[in-house]
Design goal:
Blueprint lengths: L5 E4 L6 H10 L4 E5 L9 E5 L8 H5 L4 E4 L7 H15 L3 E7 L10 H21 L5 E6 L3 H11 L5 E4 L3 E2 L4 H12 L5 E2 L9 E2 H11 L6 E4 L4 H7 L15 H14 L2
Parallel strand pairs: 1-2, 1-4, 2-3, 4-5, 5-6, 6-9, 7-11
Antiparallel strand pairs: 8-10
Length: 268
Amino acid sequence: MASPPILVTGGTGTLGRLVVPRLLDAGCDVRVLSRRTREPRAGVELATGDLATGEGIDAAVEGAEIIVHCAGGPRGDGDKARHLVQAASRSGARHLVFISVVGADRVPVTSRIDRAMFGYFASKLAAEQVIAGSGLPWTTLRATQFHDLLYLTVRQLAKLPVIPVPAGFRFQPIDPAEVAARLADLALSPPANLVPDLAGPRVEEMATLLRGYLRAHDKHRPIVPVHIPGNAARALRAGANLVPDHPAGGRTWEEFLATQASARSSTT
């Protein structure tokens, strides 16, 4: 008799697509929720639904006792989580695992500029609160920023002739594969509520991350520090998005950049 599938929301995104093979390797049946119809994958059941509206979510969660919630964005995560937990409660799910961000509870998002630049933290906190108050057994993991997402940011900035860098901002980038492995372990373990944060091996100034990118691409750009106003920016300057005392990830930013450079050279 087939075992109940594990539902992975956002299973085609940066993190979810790494979680899915780990669950498959563990012998699990996996169902992936996506907003768009996609080509079938070996060993993976596909479900189409929209967490923002709730359309299709009841069918997606039906029969799934464990849900790994990786879908998210810069805003609206609270509503998406609400639609998910409502459907999961109706279907009798026994464990909901959620990925959040380090600093969700420490970065205040109150002003217009806070919401414009750092709404991601508030969005994740709203989802955390919905899940914790849902009545479902749950586990939430907070992680620092992924290498891939910081890479997209610095790549865009590096296109400018002069690069403005938020003064005093530091990050602790982590390999999403390491986060995926931890999420898969949590999904196959008993619900644990809020678990210890997961962070990359080094705390780096934003300017340092940029200089590393420029060196890797043999580019030269002047970098100008810019003061960002607001309570959220003040919290980031104070390190609210960091876990300096408990680094867990192994792959550094420099190693990630070297991998990117190798991939580029192999395609040229």
